[in-house]
Amino acid sequence: MKFSTQTISCPHCGHHQHIDVDGTCGDQDYYDDCRICCNPIHLRLHIDEARHKIELYIDSGDEQIY
Fold it and tell me: Per the record, a Pfam family (predicted)?
């Protein structure tokens, strides 16, 4: 599992953009701003060692837990 480029859709405005995914650092949880609407995109990266896959979860980051 190495570096790859993925195309994602912004959960706020729907614009497609390319992001670089680094699978060499293990599981990650970070925010990146949309290049169009500047809203934060929450990205969670999970390394599935058993299946040799990288799972990428994307959400708007503004969900609240009550």
Answer: Zn_ribbon_21
Domain range for 12: 3-59
Nearest alpha carbon to residue 61 among 6, 27, 12, 22 = 12
Residue 12 has φ and ψ, to the nearest 5°, of -95, -55
Number of domains in the chain: 1
Tokens of 1: 């599992």
In a domain, 66, yes or no: no
The residue written with tokens 């959400």 in the block is 59
Tens digit of each residue's pLDDT (9 = 90 or more) over 30-42: 999 999 999 999 9
pTM above threshold 0.70: yes
